[in-house]
Amino acid sequence: MNRYIEIDPEDYHVLHPRPAYLIVTKGRDGRLNVMAASWVMPVSEEPPRYIVSIYREQYTYKIVKETMEFTINIVGEEHAEIVWKAGTLSGWKTDKWKLLGLEPLESKHIGAPGVKGAYGVVECRVEKLIPVGECDLAICEPLRTIVRSDLYQRYGWDLRRAKILMHQRGRVFVLPGKLIIIPKGKR
Amino acid sequence: MNRYIEIDPEDYHVLHPRPAYLIVTKGRDGRLNVMAASWVMPVSEEPPRYIVSIYREQYTYKIVKETMEFTINIVGEEHAEIVWKAGTLSGWKTDKWKLLGLEPLESKHIGAPGVKGAYGVVECRVEKLIPVGECDLAICEPLRTIVRSDLYQRYGWDLRRAKILMHQRGRVFVLPGKLIIIPKGKR
């Protein structure tokens, strides 16, 4: 018999862990900035659309409003510290790109680059910003997606090799573990 | 030197794995229905808001439009087959709730129940439906959240015990694996 307890409905961690990403913007002055985000997901398949939820006080928000573009960088175990720092330092006060020693991976369709070494990079053009609570939903079109050829199979990451970084809470991240494959015929 | 390849920007699997949920609705006729969803996430903290992306052709969409409520059920390893079936059968043709032998966990604020045995249940009231591509974003307020007392710690699932189910692609699911904890002072 399972016992349930009620928790604060403001505790969104109930919907974690979820993948942690680096979002890269390039200001009109050419300055690169990076933020960490895990409130990112696909929302439509045809046409393809992704959403990134961005806190309106964030430096990234200011840049996105001006340029309406960014890259979503899919990262892994080896990027955990970068993600932690990108998520706890502020772009208003710090040149995070420089501090973290990141190198750009040039984009084809937008000004904002990817992060060299990321597992994958999605070049996004923001179609619309929709305010929800304290954040804006950036509804965006994925213009181009690149992935590391050693880590991606047809239709998805090879999770035996791609240690996709997921955020749990605070300083706690988690990597993919056991795979469950539903046998054919089970339907 | 990492080699990158370009993939179809329509391949949203680049943003997977992500948690897989059961969304439960109750029609005006009292009929319960369940769908699987992994395009679900928090989008604002204050006030708390979650989003579920729902394909407009789905049976669940019809019911949500009428009732503007549902539960999000957080599930684990032991629910993998239920999630697979809930995601591949259609509520238009099948009484999935009965077929899957689900039992309701009564809600406090809405008519739609949770699924008995789920790791956690969030009672949601839909505030707004926003069309994006072929889906509608159901922006919702979490009214009440319950979790299994043996699986939840302060601010999050105990991933050593809660085998949170995540969807990768098709028949492939994955569970949380290695934890990475950023040491204090790293900032």
Q: Would you give an account of this structure?
A:
2 copies of one chain form a homodimer. Chain A has 187 residues and is mostly beta strands. Chain A has a single domain (12-174), classed as Electron Transport, Fmn-binding Protein, Chain A (Pnp Oxidase, Chain A, Roll). Chain A has helices spanning 59-67, 80-88, 96-99, and strands spanning 4-7, 18-19, 21-26, 32-37, 40-44, 49-55, 69-74, 104-105, 114-115, 120-132, 135-148, 152-153, 156-157, 166-169, 172-181. In chain A, the strands form 4 sheets. Chain A has a 7-stranded antiparallel beta sheet with strand order 4-3-7-10-11-6-5. In chain A, strands 2-14-15 form a 3-stranded antiparallel beta sheet, with no helix packed on it. At the A-B interface, strand 1, strand 2, strand 5, strand 6 and helix 2 of A face strand 1, strand 2, strand 5, strand 6 and helix 2 of B.
Main traits of this protein?
seven-stranded antiparallel beta sheet; homodimer; 3 helices; 15 strands; Pnp Oxidase, Chain A; three-stranded antiparallel beta sheet
* Topology order of chain A in helix (H) and strand (E) letters: EEEEEEHEHHEEEEEEEE
- Per CATH, the architecture of chain A is Roll
Tally the helices of chain A. 3
Considering residues with a beta carbon less than 8 A from a beta carbon on another chain, report the largest interface and each chain's count: A-B, 90 and 90 residues
The coarse silhouette of chain A is globular
Largest sheet of chain A: 7 strands, antiparallel
Total strand count of chain A, please? 15
Determine the CATH topology of chain A. Pnp Oxidase, Chain A
Report helical residue fraction of chain A: 10-25%
- Determine the mean pLDDT of chain A: 96
Q: Helix- and strand-based class of chain A?
A: mainly beta
Task: Write down the CATH class of chain A.
Answer: Mainly Beta
The rounded Rg of chain A comes to: 17 Å
Major sheet strand order of chain A: 4-3-7-10-11-6-5
Number of domains of chain A: 1
Distance between the termini of chain A: 28 Å
What fraction strand of chain A? over 45%
Would you identify the CATH H-level superfamily of chain A?
Electron Transport, Fmn-binding Protein, Chain A
